């Protein structure tokens, strides 16, 4: 597997999408992630409107492992089908992320962009 480096996210133009947008930036050739899998990933998340990074495993210097069923809907829908070694960009509208504005989460009401590197599937 090619060693992946911290991704850069190009600032989007135009209106945010209403539906989940999935784009493979690198297609992996390893094991495929399935809906019930536990995945190990590196990721970077930025806000659509602000372009500001709000979370990144790269910034912490280590990948993270978790079951897909415990994540936001956009990840539950957007990661299955990825293969280990791949890099995928997800643009996640609020209803598939943290809900509408005012619902309590600091990222509520925001469209979020994630670049996710799939490192392992269990």
UniProtKB/TrEMBL annotation:
PROSITE patterns linked: FKBP_PPIASE
Enzymatic reactions: [protein]-peptidylproline (omega=180) = [protein]-peptidylproline (omega=0)
Residues annotated as domain PPIase FKBP-type: 36-122
Record carries keyword Isomerase: yes
EC number(s) recorded for this UniProt protein: 5.2.1.8
GO molecular-function term, one example from the UniProt record: peptidyl-prolyl cis-trans isomerase activity
Keywords carried by this UniProt record: Isomerase, Rotamase
PANTHER family xrefs: 39 KDA FK506-BINDING NUCLEAR PROTEIN, FKBP-TYPE PEPTIDYL-PROLYL CIS-TRANS ISOMERASE FKPA
Name of this chain's protein: Peptidyl-prolyl cis-trans isomerase
Taxonomic lineage: Bacteria, Bacillati, Actinomycetota, Actinomycetes, Micrococcales
């Amino acid at each position: 597997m090619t060693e992946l480096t911290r991704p850069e996210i190009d600032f989007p133009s135009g209106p945010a999408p209403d539906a989940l947008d999935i784009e493979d930036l690198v297609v992996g050739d390893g094991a495929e992630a399935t809906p019930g899998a536990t995945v190990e990933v590196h990721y970077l998340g930025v806000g659509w409107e602000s372009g500001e990074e709000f979370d990144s495993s790269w910034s912490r210097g280590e990948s993270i492992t978790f079951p897909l069923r415990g994540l936001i809907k956009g990840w539950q829908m957007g990661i299955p089908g990825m293969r280990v070694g791949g890099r995928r960009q997800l643009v996640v509208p609020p209803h598939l992320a943290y809900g509408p504005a005012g619902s309590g989460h600091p990222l509520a009401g925001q469209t979020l962009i994630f670049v996710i590197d799939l490192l392992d599937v269990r």
